[in-house]
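Fill in residues.
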């Protein structure tokens, strides 16, 4: 299957401002930790924290570059059958250390069996991880009055197979706020004010990558939790046994 990428290339170029602003957060942490380690030998340098922040920053850059690579392929993108459940589980594994630094627990909600969906494998993984980093920062900056949880979920609807991430601390994720943030992406330092942390670039990078697959992030609800999710068309080529 092939998908047109429309204005995704322009959108990704415009996102450079948001990406640059977002990178200031982990890079500031890294610089501060290094400074403390150099100036005060009594200060314990949290190497794990530094490594996790650096890895997240590099992943955001890699996802941004992958998005540019996908939309550079003229006007068509080759899609293939991809296991949404295993991709979501792999995302949870790679996101776990980052979420833990914000005091967040991850829950994986994959009820039942799902046939593969038509997507771009590397792009889907990059989009979900970018979404997870951004939502972790948003939830981590929320009021710590209750247990912080992010649910990575997949379920079936009339629109297809839907996968996304949700949290009880993401009440600011409304359709109106998301539309406004999209319109400001690349034109404002903090286009997504309700993200509470940085520029929320991971949200927009994930959305742009998914748009190259003819889908996009939409606000959704799951068991009183708010979040962002995308729907995919099931593949007719393969079925799970």
């Amino acid at each position: 299957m092939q998908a047109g990428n429309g204005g995704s290339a322009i959108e990704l170029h415009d996102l450079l401002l948001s990406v640059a602003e977002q990178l200031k957060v982990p890079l500031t942490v890294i610089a501060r930790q290094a400074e403390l380690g150099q100036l005060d030998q009594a200060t314990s340098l949290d190497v794990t924290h530094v490594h996790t922040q650096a890895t997240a920053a590099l992943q955001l850059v890699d996802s941004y570059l992958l998005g540019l690579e996908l939309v550079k392929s003229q006007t068509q993108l080759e899609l293939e059958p991809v296991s949404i459940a295993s991709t979501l589980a792999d995302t949870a594994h790679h996101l776990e250390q980052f979420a833990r630094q914000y005091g967040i627990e991850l829950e994986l909600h994959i009820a039942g069996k799902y046939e593969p969906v038509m997507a771009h494998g590397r792009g889907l993984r990059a989009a979900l991880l970018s979404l997870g980093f951004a939502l972790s920062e948003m939830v981590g900056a929320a009021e710590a009055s209750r247990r912080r949880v992010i649910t990575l979920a997949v379920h079936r609807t009339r629109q297809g197979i839907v996968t996304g991430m949700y949290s009880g601390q993401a009440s600011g994720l409304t359709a109106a706020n998301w539309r406004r943030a999209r319109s400001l992406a690349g034109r404002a330092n903090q286009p997504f004010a309700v993200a509470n942390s940085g520029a929320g670039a991971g949200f927009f990078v994930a959305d742009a990558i998914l748009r190259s697959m003819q889908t996009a992030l939409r606000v959704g609800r799951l068991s009183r939790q708010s979040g962002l999710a995308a729907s995919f068309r099931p593949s007719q080529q393969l079925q799970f046994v």
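Confidence is low (pLDDT under 50) at residues 1-7.
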